[in-house]
Records
---
Amino acid sequence: QVQVAESGGGLVQPGRSLRLSCQASYNMFRFYVVGWYRQAPGNQRELVARISAGGTTQYSDSVKGRFVIARDNAKKTEYLQMNSLEASDTAVYYCVVDDNYWGQGTQVTVSS
């Protein structure tokens, strides 16, 4: 069974940075797209960023220019570097591997 686990969430002040990590126990990791979604209270889960097996990235308009997604296939790990954080970035962040295997989520709270 594939396991996916996020880490790195927490409380951060507006304007600061945070990096999320997601490690998967998936031997096929390097062949598939991986991504990050988020869900704020009362909202639907939304795409934040994705990165293909070949390294092509995709970002939502709300985070473009502030967030960077990356992957390390040798470590079966994906990352989300979040810069210039805003209160509206507050949400539970989920990583997904192969559009199929989801983590449990990690809370990110941006507040002064």
Note: The chain has a mean pLDDT of 96.
---
Amino acid sequence: VQLVESGGGLVQTGGSLRLSCTASGSAFSASVMSWYRQTPRELVASITSGGTTNYAESVTGRFTISRDNAKSTVYLQMNGLKPGDTAVYYCRQNYMSSLGPREYWGQGTQVTVSS
């Protein structure tokens, strides 16, 4: 499994970015997909295979996680960005296979919010 992230960049305070993470393999629809950031490491948002979402308190109301199983892609829409959101953002996939739990990480994408 390979996770490819995109969408990071430099934005001013109050701006928006949308991160994407596309997974290879056939397990995407059965996976929990999450976004973390390294500030130190913090779970930003997650979405289950059934579409249940969970957010860190610091991003609730500003960020939205969604998924498109047909495209094997998870998104993180980030609005109202603040300098404190500056970090490398990582996508994580985890699911239960016939051989046990599996976990994969993307390479990370940099998000920088200027004041």
Note: The CA atoms of residues 14 and 80 lie 4 Å apart.
---
Amino acid sequence: VQLQACGGGLVQAGGSLRLSCAASGFAFGDYGMGWFRQASGKEREFVATVTWSGSSTYYADSVNGRFTISRDNAKRMVYLQMRALIPEDTAVYYCNLRNRYGNYWGQGTLVTVSS
């Protein structure tokens, strides 16, 4: 399993970013996918998840209404569109696959939101 996240960067508060995650090494269309984040000095936390078909999504309360998770099964990609960013969104964002074989993480992409 390989999960390659990209798209992070420095953005001002109120701005937007779109993260992308390229997946390989498994039957992508069979599994739900998620995004997590870890701020400096804090534990990794759930951000959003999308079902295998993309028909259902779930969000942490802290990002609900501002972030949108989506996927393109043909391209084996997962996206996280982030809007109205706030400094508290600053973190390393990780793409995640959890299935019966294990819990897999990408290398993470850093998002920094300046006030």
Note: The radius of gyration is 13 Å.
---
Amino acid sequence: QAQFVESGGGLVQPGGSLRLSCAASERLFSFVMVAWYRQVPGKQRELIAGITNGGRTNYEDSVKGRFTISRDNAKRTVELQMNSLKPEDTAVYYCNFSPPGTNSWGQGTQVTVSS
């Protein structure tokens, strides 16, 4: 089981920015696709941004053009730059493999967008 530790969340006003970071314990991180997910109470966790080990990215439609995912294989980290944040981006954000399979989930980091 790989462990992922997310950080960087917080309270931000609409239109603001945050940068989330995730550290992975698994050395195989460098060879697999990883992603950022988010979940709001009462809804399923959804994948919002993914990145292959080679740096190819994909985004869920609602975050395209606003969020940017990046990774550093040497440091085993993946980051999510979030710009032009909206209240509907409020959620707990997680990182994990893509697909996560049976890998466990970290505690996530709360992002709240509110004036």
Note: The two ends are 39 Å apart (CA to CA).
